[in-house]
Amino acid sequence: MVSQGRPELVLKRRPFGSWLLGPVDQSTRMLRFRLQVLMTTFSIVTNLIGAVVVFVLAVFVLPGPPLIDHLRFAEAIVIPSYFLLAIAIGCVWSTRLTKRVTSWVDLGRPATRKEQIATLQLPLRLTLIEVLLWLVAVVIFTGMTLVLQPENALRIAVTVFDGMIITCTISYLLTEFALRPVAARALVDSPPPRRLLAAGLEVRMVIFWAVGSGVPVAGSMLAGLLALIEKDVTSTRLSVVMLALGIVALGNGWLLTLLSARSVVAPVRSVRTALSLIGEGRLDVTIPVFDGTELGSLQAGFNRMTDGLRERERIRDVFGRYVGPGVVQEALTSDQLGGEERFVAVLFVDLVGSTELAETRPPTEVVQLLNRFFAIVVDEVDRQGGFVNKFAGDAALAIFGAPAELPDAAGSALSAGRELARRLTEELPEATAGIGVTAGIVVAGTVGDVRRHEYTVIGDPVNEAARLSELAKSTPGRLIASMSAVAESAPAEADHWQPGDHVTVRGRSLPTQLAVPQ
Q1: CB under 8 Å to 88, separation ≥6 — which residues?
Q2: Most buried among 8, 23, 340, 348, by the most CB within 10 A?
Q3: pLDDT of res. 86
């Protein structure tokens, strides 16, 4: 259960619902060993308990004529002998059938569709072996009773037959439990076949109810019938019979209900545990599909869902690398074309002498230089809460204040400009860049066509920042801002700047007062 430990530990240690079944990545040799031990133990213990209960009920509990000494002696010899012989035959037969059906596991390859179906049907086929051996027991013991004491033949036959139904049903559930790791390997690449879903969870629940409730009731009715046939049954004897049958019915009903409930809960619990991991942001979750009913389809559906979530997150991550996380969020919340007026700060950075670099250096070296240059730009812009809106050849346009608002957009852009100038000088001495920073009102939003559009900002501050970066290429510090941006920034950042000349930059009619770092 999740409450007993962290979910990822539960999935790692008990992926199949129990530590007895081992981890998902256990070796084939260990899987074979676990399977052999569990199936042999379950078979011996289940059939031994079933045989003892049937013997006690038939010989000592149910009303009817007492067994004659010859019959008691014969049963005392035949029952243990047949039990040992049936266990030996059943174990050898079941082991060989299991190895033949699951031979693909030893070959280390995925199961084919035919092998997948055969593997999921293996618990039923193994149970039919036990049914056959119990039917032989019905014939032997009933025939022996008919020869030695015919009046007890019905009691023996019905009791052994009822015991067969209950024991084999419990054995089926335990076998299905032991085979979960093998079923998971069979279903690793595809969900349970539809032909198996035809007799799925609903039919199984009805069968388990019938065995858990119907068979014990039938046993009680048999006891009543035998009491009517035998006239001299005392009330004390009948009370003992009913108490014994009640204990058997309660124990059988409890065990069947427990096993069937766990067979249903285990797949659901694996999904619930994995969902809690998904809720924590862990998308690297895959649960083993080990059920051949609708619950297996639920597990497979969960895995398909996580595959889709991982793909969606990968696309979102890649998308964010191209346009920025803020733009991704804007695109997810609104797909409307157009924009809104926003106050933003704009930073434009452009390499100096990029044409000469392209002429004198190999293309691969130029690309490596640009990548180092842009890595520094992106790092500083992200650090200050902005986002790089465009890479234009050897230049970059960064926006502060859109799409996500900033409390001090101008201050953030100015601070990013100062740090960017310092880092480029220290970390990229073989190249220089001009940096221009300004602030003002722009239209920020989505432009283009409904079939292809992008998020951008349009307005005079964008043009002004680009022109300032051109001026900055010829200044010692390679960094120029507009005094309007400094005026809009917080005092802590404004103190790092001093006013400069008034310059009318290319493409603008009004002069811009420059600002340079102190």
Answers
A1: none
A2: 348
A3: 92
C-alpha atoms less than 13 angstroms from C-alpha of 292 in its C-beta half-sphere? 26
User: How many whole angstroms separate alpha carbon 421 and alpha carbon 475?
Assistant: 12
Q: Mean pLDDT lowest for which of 52-56, 230-234, 438-442, 481-485? A: 230-234
- Tell me if the bond preceding 403 is cis, omega within 30° of 0: yes
Amino acid at residue number 262: R
Alpha carbon dihedral 335, 338, 340, 342, in 10-degree steps, equals 90
Q: How far apart are CA 297 and CA 289, in angstroms?
A: 8
Residue bearing tokens 């190999």: 362
Inform me whether the pLDDT recorded for 198 exceeds 50.
no
CB-based contact 424:473 (threshold 8 Å): no
CA dist list (Å): 195 to 112, 172, 204, 411, 454: 15, 20, 15, 67, 49
Cβ-proximal residues to 248 (8 Å cutoff; 6+ apart), any chain: 53, 57, 216, 219
The amino acid that residue 276 corresponds to is S
Average pLDDT (197-210) is 68
Q: What is the mean pLDDT of residues 198-203?
A: 63
| Separation CA 219–CA 286 (nearest Å) | 46
Query: Which amino acid would we find at residue 109?
Result: R
User: Residue 292 and residue 306: Cα distance in Å, rounded?
Assistant: 20
Find, among 385, 472, 485, 484, the residue nearest to 436 by Cα. 472
Helices 113-120 and 69-101 cross at an angle (nearest 10°) of: 160
Give the pLDDT band (50/70/90) at residue 197: very low
Q: Which residue has the tokens 């439990």?
A: 177
Structure tokens at 483: 């005094």
Q: What is the pLDDT of residues 370-391, one digit of tens each?
A: 999 999 999 999 999 998 888 8
Gyration radius (Cα) of the chain, Å: 40
The per-residue pLDDT for range 90-109, each reduced to its tens digit, is: 999 999 999 999 999 988 88
* pLDDT tens figures, 209-259: 777 777 777 767 766 776 677 666 667 766 777 787 778 778 877 888 888
In whole angstroms, what separates CA 264 from the centre of its chain?
18
- pTM to 2 decimal places: 0.63
The amino acid present at 173, given as its one-letter code, is L
> HSE-up of 124 (CA within 13 Å, CB side)?
9
Phi, psi of 507 (to 5 degrees): 90, -5
Token pair 């917080």: residue: 490
For residue 320 the two structure tokens come to: 């964010």
Name the pairing type of β-strands 433-449 and 387-392.
unpaired
Backbone angles phi, psi at 59, to 5 degrees: -90, -40
Contact 271, 287 (CB under 8 A): yes
- Between 34-43, 112-121, 246-255, 257-266, the lowest mean confidence (pLDDT) is in 246-255
Mean pLDDT of the chain: 83
> Which segments of 232-386 are extended strands (E)?
338-351
